[in-house]
Amino acid sequence: MKIGTPKEVFEGENRVAMTPDSARQLQKLGYDCLIESGAGVKAGFSDALYEEAGVTVIETAAALWKEADIVAKVRQPESAELKHLRDGQTLISFFNPAANDEGMEAAKTAGTNVIAMEMVPRISRAQKMDALSSMANIAGYRAVIEAGNNFGRFFTGQVTAAGKVPPAKVLVVGAGVAGLAAIGTSTSLGAITYAFDVRPEVAEQVESMGAEFVFLDFEEEQQDGAATGGYAAVSSPEFAAAQLAKFRELAPDMDIVITTALIPNREAPELWTKDMVDAMKPGSVIVDLAAEKGGNCKLTVKDEKIVTDNGVTIIGYTDFPSRMATQASTLYATNIRHMMTDLTPEKDGQINHDMEDDVIRGATVTFKNEITFPPPPPKVQAIAAKPKEKVPELTAEEKRAQEVAAFKAQTKQQVTLLAVGAALVLGVGLIPGMPASFMQHFIVFVLSVFIGFQVIWNVAHSLHTPLMAVTNAISSIIILGALIQIGSSSMLITLLAALGIFMASVNIFGGFLVTRRMLAMFQKS
Asked: What gap in Å lies between CA 282 and CA 301, rounded to an integer?
C-alpha cells in the first residue's frame, strides 16, 4: 500500500505530516511513500531530501490523492480536498469531528476511513501517538519566546554596574502539556514563575520544575484529571469565583501571563477579565493559547496582537506550532509513524484497522461508510489518584509517647542483637580445641558485622545506592588477603582465593562504575 502526504492548503500552515526520517521508518513497515512536490519546503525539507530517503515525489495534489491508499496530513481537509476522498482510502489528520459535519458526511459517503489525531485517547500506551500533546508542548515553549519578544525587560534578574534589574514575574494559567512546557521555558530563562491549575495533582509537577503553585483558599475538592481523560473538568461556579478573585489579586504584580486553559470540544473559559488587564502594569504581556476557541482573556483577538490603552500587549496567535515548522513536523510525523505501526502489526505494508483496539477505535471517526464518532470510553481507563485520607494532627503528648515507644523498640532490637552475638561468640569459644588466635579474629569479625549493619541500616533510602557503590569499591581491600593466600600449597585455598579476587574485582570496578553513572545523572552534558 502507498502512503502519501499532500501540501497543506490552509493559509499560513508550514507543517508537513511526513519527514524524510519518518518516511524511512514507514518503508520498514512495508509501505511505499509519496509526497507532493514542495510539501515540506516551508518546514525545511526539500524534494531532494525526500528522494534521497526513497520517497516518490508527485507533482500535483490531485495525482497524490488518487494514487495514495493512505493520506496523512496536518490540518483538517478543506472542501476541495474532501472531493478527493474515495472508497477504501484511509485519511489520518486533525479532523475536528465535533464541529466538522461536512467532513464527516463526505467521508461516510465516500467510504473513507478517517483517523482523527486529536481523538487519540490519553492512555499510557497511546502517548507516542498523542499529537495534541506534541503540538501543545511546542505551543507552550513558543508562547514564552513570543512573550519575551514583546516584553521590554530581561526575564532573569541581574545586578550590574549600571544598576539592579529585577526578574520578570510570569503566571501560567493551566498546567497541562502546554502549561508545563511554558513553565519549564520560563524558569530556565530565570523568571519567577507562578502556575495555577484546577487539578490538585499537578502541584507537585509544577513545584518540581522550579515554579510556585498558586493555591486557592477553597474547600471544594476538584476532580482528579486522570478521571476525566487527562483533561481538567469544568469547575463549579463557586470555585470559578474564588479563582477569579485570586487572579485579580495577582494581576498587578505579574509581568507576563500565559493562559492555556482549554477543555476539548468546548469554548475556552474566560479567566482573565478586562479589569484584570486594566490592573496590569504598562509593558506587560498576555499570551492566550486558547485564542482559537474564544480565548481565556476577555480582550483577546484571534490571530492578532493588540496593545490595550494601558500598554498591555495581548497575543492571540493560533499558529504557534507552525511558527516552529521543522520541529513541529518532526514530532507530528513521528506520531503518525507510531499510529501506522499500530495499524500494521505484521509489518507487511497492509493496514489492519482493528476496531477492538482501544487506541485505533478511539481515534477512528468514520469506518466503512459509518460515522463512529463519538467513540465509547476506552476499556483501559486512566487511574485516578486515590483520595488522600486526612491524618489527624498529633498533640505534643502523643508525639512524645511515639518517640519514647520508638526509642524503646530500637533499644530492644540492639540489645537482642548484642545478646545473640555474645551467645554465638561464647558458643564458638566453647568448642573443644578452638585456638585462641582464631577467637580473636572471630570476635573482631562479629563486631565489624554489627557495626556495619548499624551504619548501613540507618542510611536514608535516597542515599543508599551511592553509599553502597563507594563502600563496595573501598571495602574490597580484602582482595589483598586473597592475593596473599593464592600462593598456598593447598589447591582448595588457591581456588577459594582466586574466586575471592574475582568477586572483589567486580566490587571494585562495579562500585566505581555505578558511582560514575550516578554522578553523570547530574551533569547537563
From this structure: 19
Residues 430-485 pLDDT 10s: 888 878 778 888 888 877 777 777 776 666 666 666 666 666 666 666 787 888 88
Residue from 21, 222, 231, 278 carrying the catalytic annotation: 231
Catalytic residue of the set 133, 186, 284, 322: 133
Clarify whether 231 is annotated catalytic: yes
Whether residue 383 has pLDDT greater than 50: no
Is 127 designated active site? yes
Q: Has 323 been annotated as catalytic?
A: no
* Exposure of 257 in the CB half-sphere (CA atoms within 13 A): 32
Cell numbers for 455: 551504619
Select which of 50, 76, 89, 130 is catalytic: 130
**Residue 447: what pLDDT?**
79
Give the pairing type, strands 285-288 and 256-259: parallel
Q: List C-alpha distances in Å: 230 to 133, 381, 411, 421.
A: 11, 10, 49, 56
pLDDT above 90 covers a percentage of the chain that reads: 63
CB atoms within 10 A of CB 358: 19
CB count within 10 Å of CB 281 equals 13
- Look up the pTM and report it: 0.72
414 catalytic per annotation: no
